[in-house]
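Aim 2 progress update. The chain analyzed this quarter is reproduced below.
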Amino acid sequence: MKYILIILIPILFISCKNKNTQTDFIVNCFHNNKVYPENADIVLNKTCEFKNHIFKSIGKSDFNGRYSYEYEIFRIKNNDTLKINNVDFFNNNSIELERLINKKLKTENESNSENTEISDCLKWIKFRYYKLNEFGITFTDKNQMEFNIDYGIGSACFNVSFSSVIMEFHEIEKYLK
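Predicted structure tokens:
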């Protein structure tokens, strides 16, 4: 007698429920890494779908294997996709979100400047107020929205040349369209 073994593989959709409004925030992220054998580089591609939008992040390595990212947002309308700016994803209260992100960045920067191991590198950062369109936006594996900024300082201080502000959906819900 022959037996057929059937293995069911569940499809995982990340979902987060806000208890106050019972609104579902569903983010689906896919990783597609490309290998370029001629120089052994791997390009890290992450695509996340959220609220009729596609968030893309593309990571490219430098000569030391350290990754820097580029970000794009596309709005899906009917069967078309249109590249948009960050502010176009959020509602009219986006300036409040922008202020909140900058406040968190400033707090992190001030805290880090007290760390003697990285304080010399932090001196290169000309900290200023950053506009919402200057951030790269993606999602964490824990279903949080991540705002990334590149301070544009040299590769000798690569470890502090980027910062991220990670926010839960309940923190950003009032800024979403």
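The chain has four helices and ten strands. The CA atoms of residues 51 and 143 lie 13 Å apart. These observations will guide the mutagenesis experiments scheduled for the next reporting period.
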